[in-house]
Amino acid sequence: MNAIFKLSAGALLVASSTLVMSQDMVVKIGHVGPTSGGIAHLGKDNENGARMAIDELNAKGVMIGGKKVKFELLAEDDAGDPKQGTAAAQKLVDSKVAGVVGHLNSGTSIPASKVYSDAGIPQISPSATNPKFTRQGYKTTFRVVADDVHLGGTLGKYAVEQLKGKTIAVIDDRTAYGQGVADEFEKGVKAKGGKIAKREFTNDKATDFTAILTSIKAAKPDVVFYGGMDAVAGPMIRQMKQLGINAKFMGGDGICSGELPKLSAGAMGDGQVVCAEAGGVEGTQKVAMEKFKADFKKKFNTDVQIYAPYVYDATQVMVAAMVKAGSVDPVKYLPVLAKTNGYQGVTGTISFDEKGDIKNGALTLYTYKGGNREQIAVVR
């Protein structure tokens, strides 16, 4: 009889323990990026940034509204395709996520933003830079990097003032991001008295640029700007060299990756490429960033490409708003997220303006030497 009582008490203890564990809230946070296709290395970089934040938050044991929370990352692949992007967005909405970090590309982030807005779910993009993204009037849309007005304009100014570009050619991939940043670059060039000698376009899956580069070569450019991603920029740089075009090559954050030297098959000369990342750290902030990169390398056995730190910060900012609101309900924490002011992240101070854009967003100019990316300057 005594033995039976002990068994029953033990069973009761296990049941009680299970009940306590079941009271932990499971909160789903979505991430979307192109983890297949030509820029899968960038999509995986972003996804790993989200995974790193989620793992750290779970290890810390976050309390929201008096309950311990276990975060679950729902990662979706949009392949950089707008239709797949909206399908991924709807899937996350149907899965009842509390918020979404993503998408990577402007071309997927913009159409997906309507899906999230209609569902009332906050979306923070770590890398979509097309100005339209935050100018649609949606209260659910945020980003933690500067937009293409700043990025393209700064590169246009740099082309004229620093690179002394007299004959400038522009190519874009006709995506929301590529065409958008190329347009802003052109405006920046013209604002500084420069001229665009040639404007050509390709697409984001092209591999042969002989026709457009031959046309550009006839104009004898000293600067060629490409609006698009590194998977296309690499082969383009290689073919420019083969055709004897010795112009400086410029681009936005889409080309500004650690993979670009490999994608160009070693065709890049030292200092030949100038690109910009929509973000940047200065002073003491560099210590935090270097620690993040070291921790990232240790965890995933790979280097940060571009935006993993911004995904990490976007995830942390979203959760910080939930904690402050005492709720994971988007209706309750969204107003708190919108008022984010002075959050200290790995990438710097994060505050949102009335559109959901980051205030005083930084921009970092880079070049490549010896196959490695080197910082030129941080511009605000």
Any key phrases for this structure?
380 residues, alpha/beta, Rossmann fold, 2 domains, 6-stranded mixed beta sheet, 44% helix, 21% strand, disordered N terminus, amino-acid transport, Leu-bd, Peripla_BP_I
Task: Give an overview of the whole structure.
With 380 residues, this protein is of the alpha/beta class. It has helices at residues 2-22, 40-60, 82-94, 106-119, 148-161, 176-191, 210-217, 230-242, 260-263, 285-300, 308-325, 330-338; strands at residues 25-33, 63-64, 67-77, 99-102, 123-125, 141-143, 168-172, 196-201, 223-227, 248-251, 273-277, 343-345, 348-350, 363-369, 372-379. The chain has a seven-stranded mixed sheet with strand order 8-7-9-10-11-14-15, with helices on both faces. It has a six-stranded mixed sheet with strand order 2-3-1-4-5-6, sandwiched between helices. Strand 2 (63-64) and strand 3 (67-77) form a beta hairpin. The relative contact order is 0.13. Belongs to the leucine-binding protein family.
How would the blueprint of this fold be written?
Elements: H1 2-22, E1 25-33, H2 40-60, E2 63-64, E3 67-77, H3 82-94, E4 99-102, H4 106-119, E5 123-125, E6 141-143, H5 148-161, E7 168-172, H6 176-191, E8 196-201, H7 210-217, E9 223-227, H8 230-242, E10 248-251, H9 260-263, E11 273-277, H10 285-300, H11 308-325, H12 330-338, E12 343-345, E13 348-350, E14 363-369, E15 372-379
Parallel strand pairs: 1-3, 1-4, 4-5, 5-6, 7-8, 7-9, 9-10, 10-11
Antiparallel strand pairs: 2-3, 11-14, 12-13, 14-15
